[in-house]
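Example for tutorial group B:
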């Protein structure tokens, strides 16, 4: 019996070694849930969805509270209203959506597009990478990029200065537009969730984003109003407007998920901005927060289940141009552009034309920076750009609440907890830094363009 078993084992082994290979195992080696190769038309929408969640979730909720466009009303959001219970762990999600998610996918798209001469895909991927970098650096300052996105080859990326990140953004936008104009073997279509494969629209978006980031330098010696105006004028030659729409059943708008599904009543639509709107009989008020019977717990326009997360809009570009025209000394042109910006925003929201005209007619006669920025503050509701504008200009004139946990309004975010756990040697701010330092209230770790 033992001999027979031994013989059978030997014969079986011999058969495996001589009469067949392990090809019969191949289908079992493949994990269908973790494919080794993913095509560009799958990677692109994944990166775009990640971007929508990064720009539309944790970050704008906090900055809208900082900017008193909304009020933390319950649980942790109530604490956020006085800048408490905001820790490094709160930023692991947007950081991960960018580095482990969207930007890594976009790097794969760029690599594949170069190999396949699919320059349209590469152009879109470069523009989207610039979008990611812009949101990240304007919240955190110095961030990894030049040595990042290499997978297992480098798990501890160094940090690039914010000035160099801004240079990378400009390069990516310029190269992206050039790629869009290069004959391409493949072109995005329905897999492009933002522009549906419209390469002209992507070029306009890139130009508009270029104007935004040039304007962010208004407190630095690098600012040039004429360059900002030229970029705005170039963008306005096309149809400016980029956003990411969500589906009602399977993929809902992040504001809706938070204010209606997950955390009803945590944030309410009251604060300095709404006080300003009530005082000026602003017709956008009810569009922004509904009526008082609703309790102001939700956002009827920007927080509907299928609402778009706006990336950049025509009215933003017009406000940027009005600011630059005023900086160049042309108050008359700035006034005309400001009124066009307000009209554009009112049209975007569906405000009655007569109501919009009446609102504009009641504006103060003097066109100064405060007027432009206060109007932009209202128009950029739910967008992180409102926080950037306040840090650059000081408008609107708001102050920290009396019971604030910091000595001023936050001007930056702390780095994510995951960076301190896995990349601590490279993080340019010690975990032991004081809260006022971590949030940029002091000048120690303030952002490059916000240093003065």
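The residue assignment follows.
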């Amino acid at each position: 019996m033992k001999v027979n078993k031994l013989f059978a084992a030997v014969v079986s082994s011999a058969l495996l070694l001589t009469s067949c290979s392990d090809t019969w195992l191949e289908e079992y080696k493949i994990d269908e849930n973790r494919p080794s190769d993913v095509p560009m038309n799958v990677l692109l929408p994944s990166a775009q969805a990640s971007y929508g969640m990064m720009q539309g979730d944790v970050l704008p909720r906090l900055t809208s509270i900082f900017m008193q466009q909304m009020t933390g009303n319950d649980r942790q959001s109530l604490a956020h209203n006085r800048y408490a219970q905001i820790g490094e762990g709160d930023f692991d999600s947007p950081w991960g959506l960018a580095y482990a998610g969207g930007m890594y996918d976009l790097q794969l798209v760029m690599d594949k597009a170069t190999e396949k001469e699919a320059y349209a895909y590469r152009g879109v991927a470069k523009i989207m990478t610039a979008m990611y970098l812009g949101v990240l650096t304007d919240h955190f300052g110095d961030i990894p990029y030049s040595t990042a996105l290499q997978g297992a080859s480098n798990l501890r990326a160094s940090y690039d200065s914010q000035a160099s990140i801004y240079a990378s953004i400009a390069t990516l936008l310029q190269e992206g537009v050039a790629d869009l104009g290069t004959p391409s073997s493949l072109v995005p279509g329905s897999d492009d969730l933002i522009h549906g494969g419209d390469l002209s629209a992507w070029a306009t978006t890139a130009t508009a984003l270029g104007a935004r980031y040039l304007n962010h330098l208004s407190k630095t010696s690098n600012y040039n109003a004429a360059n900002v105006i030229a970029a705005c004028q170039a963008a306005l030659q096309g149809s400016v407007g980029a956003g990411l729409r969500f589906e009602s059943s399977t993929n809902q708008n992040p504001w809706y998920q938070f204010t209606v599904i997950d955390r009803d009543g945590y944030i309410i639509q009251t604060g300095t901005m709404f006080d300003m709107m009530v005082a000026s009989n602003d017709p956008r008020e009810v569009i922004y927060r509904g009526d008082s019977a609703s309790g102001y717990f939700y956002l009827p326009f920007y927080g509907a289940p299928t609402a778009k997360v706006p990336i950049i809009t025509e009215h933003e570009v017009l406000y940027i141009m009005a600011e630059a025209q005023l900086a160049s000394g042309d108050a008359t042109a700035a006034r005309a552009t400001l009124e066009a910006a307000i009209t554009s925003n009112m049209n975007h929201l569906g405000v009655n034309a007569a109501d919009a005209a009446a609102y504009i007619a009641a504006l103060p006669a003097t066109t100064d920076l405060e007027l432009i920025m206060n109007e932009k503050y209202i128009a950029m509701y739910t967008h992180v750009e409102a926080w950037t504008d306040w840090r650059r200009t000081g408008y609107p004139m708001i102050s920290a609440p009396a019971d604030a946990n910091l000595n001023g309004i936050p001007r930056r975010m702390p780095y994510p907890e995951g960076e301190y756990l896995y990349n601590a040697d490279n993080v340019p701010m010690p975990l032991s830094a004081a809260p006022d330092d971590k949030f940029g209230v002091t000048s120690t770790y303030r952002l490059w363009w916000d240093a003065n």
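The longest strand covers residues 309-313. Compare this with the pattern of hydrophobic and polar residues in the output above.
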